[in-house]
Amino acid sequence: xxxxxxxxxxxxxxxxxxxxxxxxxxxxxxxxxxxxxxxxxxxxxxxxxxxxxxxxxxxxxxxxxxxxxxxxxxxxxxxxxxxxxxxxxxxxxxxxxxxxxxxxxxxxxxxxxxxxxxxxxxxxxxxxxxxxxxxxxxxxxxxxxxxxxxxxxxxxxxxxxxxxxxxxxxxxxxxxxxxxxxxxxxxxxxxxxxxxxxxxxxxxxxxxxxxxxxxxxxxxxxxxxxxxxxxxxxxxxxxxxx
Amino acid sequence: xxxxxxxxxxxxxxxxxxxxxxxxxxxxxxxxxxxxxxxxxxxxxxxxxxxxxxxxxxxxxxxxxxxxxxxxxxxxxxxxxxxxxxxxxxxxxxxxxxxxxxxxxxxxxxxxxxxxxxxxxxxxxxxxxxxxxxxxxxxxxxxxxxxxxxxxxxxxxxxxxxxxxxxxxxxxxxxxxxxxxxxxxxxxxxxxxxxxxxxxxxxxxxxxxxxxxxxxxxxxxxxxxxxxxxxxxxxxxxxxxx
Lengths: 242, 242
Known about the structure:
The structure is a homodimer. By secondary structure, the first copy, chain A, is an alpha+beta fold. In chain A, 54% of the residues lie in helices and 6% in strands. Chain A has two domains: 3-86, Glutaredoxin (3-Layer(aba) Sandwich); 93-213, Glutathione S-transferase Yfyf (Class Pi), Chain A, domain 2 (Up-down Bundle), CATH 1.20.1050.
C-alpha cells in the first residue's frame, strides 16, 4: 500500500522535506491533498484526519503521513519514522539520533525563515507586518543564517567518513533536508544566501550534489515539484534581502 | 556514570524539559553548567562541547546531554534518547512515535512563547521590540494558546487508556513537558492562560497531577528548580497579558 502524504497542495512548505525523502528513495506514495475529490482525495481527505473525533492520533497540522493504521505528524517525526524504512538513515542508534538532531536543527532554521516574513503573527498578512519583517529579516540573514550554515559546515568537516554527507558515507534524510533548506534560502534571500554560502563551501557542494542525485534530479524537473512561491515558507520579497 | 546535562545555569528554558524527565525518574545526573569551575564544571565545561573542534557531534545550542561517548542536542532528541532509558515512554514503536510527536508540538508552542516577547530578533533586548511584542503576544494568547490547548485536550479525551496521561496509562516525558508548558504559560500569561485552561480541563488536571507526583513535587520544592524569571522563555511582562 502506498504511503499517503497529506500536505497543503500549492506550496512546498514543511511537506517538502517529506516529499524529498519519498522521492529520493523511489517510494510509492500518494500526495493526497493534490488528488481529486472524486477519488476520495483532495483537501477534504486531509481535513478528515485533523477534524474527525474518531482519529485517535490527530495531527496538529499538516504535513502528516498515513501508513496503514499509523498516522504521524510533525515533519521531523515523519522522517524519524520513514528514515529506516526508506534506507535514508544509518542502522545504529547513534547514527539515527545524530541524523534526527540535525533534522531538528534544520527545522529550527525553517521556523526562523518563516518568522522572517511573519514576525508579528501567522494569522496576519505579510503586508500588515512588513515594517517588523524588515527588522526581523535583517537579523535572520545577517546573523542567524551565517551561524547555522557555519555549524552545518563544521558538521560536514568533522564527519569521519568524509564531507560528502552529514552522517556517515551515505545519503540520509538530513542531507536531503539541508539541500531543501539551502535551496529555500537561495530562493528567498539570493544575495544573502550566496554570500553566506561562500563561507560554507561544503554545504554549498552538498546542495549541488543532492540536486544531481538521479531520483532527486528527476523529481525537481517534474511537475510534482511545486515551484517556490510567496505562499510558502521561503518567500522572495526583494525588500527583505540585501 | 551520571548523565551530564548541559544548560544555561540561571534559567529553566528548554533545559527544564530535560531536567524534569531526569528528576521524575530519579536519575543520577549532574547539571554541569551550574557546578563550579574548580570541579571542571561551570559554563567553560559546557562551552567545550560547543566550541572544541575535536567534538564530532557538536550541539548547535544548549541544552545537550552527555552520556559516556554520546552527545545529544535538541531537547526533543534528548528526550527521545532518555525516554526508554528512564522508563518515561511506552515500549512499542507507535507509542514512542506518538509521544515524540506530542513533544515536538510542545516544542513548537515553546518557540512561539519565546517569539511573543522577541518577535524581531533573538539578538535584541525586549525593550527594543516591545511595540512588536505587544502585537505578537496578542495573537499568541488569543489564538495560538487556545488552539494548542484544545488540541492537547482532544489528545487526552481520545486516549483509549484514559485521560490521565497523553499516551497510554503511564507517565511519559510528554506529560512532564505538557506540565512545564502549562506552568510556563500560567507564569507568563496568568490571565490568558487561566481563561484558556477553562476550556481544557483535562490539560489543567494533568498539570496539577504532575506537580503532585512524588519526585516532581520534591524537585519543584527544591533549590534545583530555578524560579521562572525574565531571562527565560516564559517571561511575565504584564503588558503582554490580558
